[in-house]
Design brief:
alpha/beta; globular; Purple Acid Phosphatase, chain A, domain 2; disordered N terminus; 7 helices; 6-stranded mixed β-sheet
Length: about 260
């Protein structure tokens, strides 16, 4: 066989096997789309008219795949309505990581809703998140309780005074009368150095002035934290990373709530 024919055969073989390889580490052609919207639709149907909303809060699944498998088994034994995955879904914002995590999380018997973390913004991670989960800032209302999902990863935007989007947050907290109470969910809490601290006061003031927020849920710090840092009655609960093998179950009823730790 001539050298030219050998070269052509080699190219054909490589093209035939292209499905075995990623074209680029920053590939964005995801297999799953609009997962948050689909989860929210399920939540609206299942939580309708319940007196108490029961939420599981976790964060920083990243590379902890075995632990996440165990979490799913444990969570499926709870009587919860849905799960918040509070950011750092991935380690490097790569498509395969996003899909590997969802391949585990889809084994949950209840819906889960994700917010974006700083690790998820690496590379083309922001584009992947938007395709796979939806807008970086989002919300939904069930039983007159509004859950506000917020991008708070200020450092990843070079502290440009735009993240988090305070105007959007204020609008969500004051724009209509379809809700009586609200919970804010994001990756980085406002008292962390990766939050744009020039916006800390405005974030806190938005929550305080609404008089509808009693709870703000976060992750990022890889350790549990329960604090009311601004002496305003608003509690900030920070989830551990998945390798710590603990999650929070939060029961919300009216303007009251209670939570417990679950170890697995």
């Amino acid at each position: 066989m001539s050298q030219n024919k050998v070269a052509i055969v080699g190219i054909v073989v490589l093209l035939g096997a292209c499905s075995l390889f990623e074209y680029h580490p920053y590939e964005t052609n995801v297999a799953y789309r609009n997962l948050n919207a689909k989860a929210i639709e399920r939540i609206a149907k299942s939580v309708n008219d319940k007196d108490t909303i029961t939420v599981i809060s976790i964060g920083d699944s990243q590379r902890f795949y075995d632990e996440l498998e165990d979490f799913v088994q444990s969570a499926n034994q709870q009587r919860a309505d849905f799960v918040f995955l509070n950011g750092d879904i991935t380690d490097f914002g790569i498509k395969d990581e996003y899909e590997w995590i969802h391949d585990i999380m889809k084994k949950l018997t209840i819906p889960y809703v994700a917010v974006i973390g700083n690790h998820d913004l690496s590379g083309n991670g922001e584009e992947i998140f938007e395709k796979m989960y939806g807008p970086l800032n989002n919300y939904f209302v069930v039983n007159r309780h509004k859950f506000i999902l917020l991008n708070t990863n200020g450092r990843e935007y070079h502290f440009n005074k735009k993240i988090p989007d305070i105007s959007w947050l204020q609008e969500q907290l004051t724009s209509n009368d379809t809700f009586d109470h609200a919970t804010v969910v994001s990756h980085i809490p406002p008292f962390d150095s990766d939050f744009d601290l020039s916006l800390e006061h405005d974030y806190v003031a938005a929550l305080q002035s609404s008089e509808k927020v009693k709870l703000s849920l976060h992750a990022h710090k890889h350790t549990f934290k329960d604090t009311i840092p601004y002496s305003d009655g608003i509690r900030y609960l920070v989830s551990t990373s998945m390798d710590e093998r603990m999650y929070l179950i939060i029961k919300i009823y009216g303007d009251q709530y209670e939570y417990k730790k679950v170890y697995f």
